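To: structure desk
From: M.T.
Subject: fold request, one chain
Message: Could you run this one when you get a chance? Sequence is below, nothing fancy, just the single chain.
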Amino acid sequence: MLVDTDVLIWHLRGYPKATQRLDQLPKLVLSAVTYLELLQGMRNRSEQRALQKSLALRQAERLPLTPAITERAILLMEKLALSHGLQLGDALIAATGIEHQLTLLTANTKHFSVVDGLQLERFEPGEPAP
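Reply: Done. Structure tokens follow.
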């Protein structure tokens, strides 16, 4: 299972359903792009350290970009950017899932449902913790 950025954001914001779903995974696997997107959203060093600690506690595996992932993302962008608005980060994450034959856990199924060959599991974040 490849975990999309949005699910990790829900987890970091204290949404219990996100934490519970991550707890069910045998291993937390994310794309290098997901990690970069998370870093981009950090507001300060404290948040950055909390992210790194959370990923370390879960022994997260970060899948690097490879030439094969890059080439597949290029094909996806050529096919879907104009017709469906596929964005760079989503193309790279989708390509990572396809190349590693991993289902993508995401709440953003609208962004990814147009990608042939990508298996999706829809995540519903529910309500935040009180």
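Reply (cont.): The chain has a mean pLDDT of 95. Let me know if you need anything else for the meeting.
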